[in-house]
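Worked example 2:
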Amino acid sequence: MEPMTIPIACVQISCTPFDRISNLDKADEAIGKAAAQGARLILLPEFLPTGSTWDWRLLDLAEPLGGPTSQWIQHRSRKTGCWIGAGILERAAEAVFDTFLLVGPTGEIHSYRKHYPAFFELLLFHRGSTVGIFDTPLGRIGLLVCWDMVHARLWKAMAGQIDLLLICSAWPAARTGNLPIPGLQGWLDRQPVHMPKYLAKTLDVPVAYCNMTGPFISPIPYLGFTYRAQFPGSSSITESDGTTIAAAGSEEIILLGEVRPRVETVPRKAA
């Protein structure tokens, strides 16, 4: 019997800082369209409800697991019958985390906390400590958030352990920024295109990568300087041999592709 395939949609959108209602309204419309086009798994960007900024006020929008955004995603998952993944700010008892939620249509909710906040994110968020691997009816799914994907320790731990890798991201294009980063700018801007392909071939699994698009405008903590850049988009869906199934530019788009997980994906029995 041929292994099943999974229709995936990457919802590449711009998210406005501090405007949860507008961001979720935009996501809601895209989720409906993606489901209508046959997606079974829908991936949205990092910082979906809050937008991305290094502004301290962002912490005021953090919410617990099971809070309003978690419930919002669960409702859309039940309504569409799709698995939905997105990044939120999680407020736990001890700290605020940059967290990837993966929610299933029968109420399942999995969460993974970003291990490597990038640059000035280190001032705002704490680091996660657990590996993002979860059993689902779609197979064993690995989760990474943005900057995590360039840290080999994380994805090497997934080798042979996952059937599909999902990455949500808010990775700006350094070349568009008003603060030069000599010696690093070119490398930074290659990663959103290069790493999903590299990880697919290295781990022998399909990879769905969903990045934000639109402007990135943020104060730089303690420096009194406003950083301005653009999110490049560059979302992609890649087959396990590194073949690009679908790829986006910088536009807002629902990117659709159908992948074949590493093994036949059937519901796993509880241990």
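The chain has one domain: 6-259. The radius of gyration is 17 Å.
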